[in-house]
Amino acid sequence: MIDYSSVVTKFxxxxxxxxxxxxxxxxxxxxxMVALVVDIFWDxxxxxxxxxFLSYPSRRASEAGILSAWVGxxxxxxxxxxxxxxxxxxxxxxxxxYAKKNIITKxxxxxxxxxxxVPSIVYGLLAVGIFAQVFGFGESxxxxxxALGVLVLPIVIVTTRESVRAFPYTIRExxxxxxSTKFETLVHHILPYSFGGIITGFIMALTRAIGETAxxxxxxxxTFIAFLPPSPFKSDYPFISFEWLLSPFTALxxxxxxxxxxxxxxxHINAAGVGVVLVLLTIILITLMSIIRYRFRKKxxxx
Length: 303
Prior knowledge:
Blueprint: H1 4-44, H2 50-54, H3 67-98, H4 103-115, H5 120-134, H6 141-165, H7 169-177, H8 182-209, H9 214-218, H10 252-260, H11 265-302
Helix pairs in contact: 1-11, 3-6, 3-8, 3-10, 5-6, 6-8, 7-8, 8-11, 10-11
């Protein structure tokens, strides 16, 4: 006769052991992350001054700053992230709602899932071949931004599809039964309810894009640059200029890599300061995206 109490006890022991090991691994990883962040802040916080943000890189570590680096980072993100969001959301909606379920669609879906794990330098080579050479953008801000946009595009597509797929099928059928078209159901019901998940995927894409170095180096980001791109605003008509899109650039990860490779300790402290700025910039952008997501969900619930 089977002793069910011993079987249950054995499974409970395995379950508790698995939970303990999982929490232990989480604690180890979290402790390493905290130690790394604390070490970066300990070394880099003394460099966080106004002069550090308003000065160009220099051969003297005490006079070096990150003006061109943080401006370049914001500019390439302003190109890459809107591109990834617009193209990724539209592609995800099309694949989930409009594309026919056949062998071609399945091949596309598998490739999109696989692209999320491709090394980032491959996207840099892709950007060099297509955006820099075929389109003739060269080693410019638009090339770097599009490289980051293509890099995070699979993440946005996958999260958009999962968010749309999670929409209750009964509400969809109710909308159809009341005479709504597929497009009206998508715009007025599916997208509002899926927006929170889409923004979550966009936040994941943002956290990956903001610290990428390999694709930017591949597309020709400069390690030393002592000038800013042309202003996007002009004093005369039409008051807007797009010359900055074709300007050379650098970025915070590139500047950090440059200073870490130097033998002087003062430059290593500067690199730690860049690390602090990257962490704070990531926190600020994620907070803004989270506020937008929260306000949208709150507005949706009130309706």
